[in-house]
Design brief:
It is a single chain. By secondary structure, this protein is mainly beta. It is built from 3 helices and 37 strands. It is globular and about 65 Å long.
Length: 511
Amino acid sequence: MLLSSAVRPTRQLPIVLGLLALGLSIAACQKHVASGVIAEETRGEGQRVEKKEDAASGLGDSHLGHDWPKFLGPHENGVSEESNLLESWPEQGPELIWEMTVGTGYSAPSVLGKRLVLHHRLGGEEVVDCLDAQTSEPIWRYTYASRFQDPYGYNNGPRCTPLLTDSRCFTLGADGKLLCLKIESGELVWQRDLKKEFTIPDGFFGVGATPILEGEKLIVAVGGQPDAGLVAFSAKDGEILWKAVGQSTWDGAETGWSNDPTYVWEGDEMIVSYSSPMAVTIHDRRHVLCLMRHGLVSVDPESGDENFHYWFRSRTHESVNAAQPVVVDDTIMLGAAYRVGSVCLKVNADGRGVEQVWKNPRDLSTHWSTTLYSQGHYFGFSGRHENEATLQCVDAATGRVKWETTGWDGQEELQQDAEGQPVSKKTGKRLPWPFYGRGSAILADGKMIVLGERGTLALVKLNIDQWEEVSRCSAPRMKYPSWTAPVLSRGRLYLRCEDAMVCLRVGNEAE
């Protein structure tokens, strides 16, 4: 499937998309029954339940490959070092290893050795489940009560991805419960209730920025007024080490807005958004970067002292910054929806400021999925709404679009079957959902693995000249909204949506 770099996708696609979505949304309301179900149970506050004492003893996994122990993988950029993956997939898709029903949430699973940890919501509890990554057999479970309700009607589960080390599991819930558990047993080491301890204005969709580890510091986008936007906790015992970012950062900041050229701090505004902190080295200097509610900030990870900030936000109040910055050498690319677009910044040699390389008000308007980088180009999803979203390839040096696609080349006429699924009008054969929508992607073994928001799974070559899809299928049990990015570890691909998680074999070597 090829798309010329000189042609942008037709903007008449919302009509086709709307007709197909109507039937699919009806079918998506059906509940599935899986072979491996995490049953919904009522438990007391903070109760830990051992499920299987002999499951996954030890952390090691004998299969070749790499761990995916934190948000967006080992390098926190959606790039995997896995190799020897399938060059293409069978028509029905990669082999299904296991599947299970799970609770709600947008949190991705994390994998370390034999252990997979998922943070999700079952009834009135947030649940941290540790499973055998190869079989989905339960190892331990930790639960606690949650009263979070999404004010916009989205699901009420966790948004943040578990962070795993050889000895610890860190999680952050939708209502601000920060936990440190023992990875071996699930036993509680320490916890903080951020909503009770800090003055945090309510976010649009709950707490959604995943913590990171920098040495022995757990750095969390807390969002506390007036200057606790970022907080460093001791990973050992949870004690506060420093607080930074807020009024001192943004009061009087230049906005670039003609009618409001400088920002006046009000004292009750949100400080954080939904982009997670990240630790990087630029010009031999260590930075913690975070795209906050108002824009990008860099602080010293040792002290929390500010290096620089850059205003980057929408004029629309009901808007978010959710995609991660993309760091390449001494450049930082930011993207956001809500009529913001993208910008590429170059960090000064002293690490104390940035200069704008290019700015694009339309393209790489990433809503939440993080853009990938390869071969001097960015590959990312652009668009606030499903019916306008495209996958784009953008020249990193200039910000110019090389190609973009909705995921459908339009060469085959479509219609719906009795269950509302897209089928070929010519053959009557059921097809995967044609459009990626606001998809997510990871990069592995020279290709992108793309998960569309209605469950289409695609393998796409990293071709800077044209869109080149190798394989596509309907991922088992994935349906709208499939908004969680894929996870890859040891030749196994893990996908989740609002009520299911599956494991697929994408490696060449059989287990």
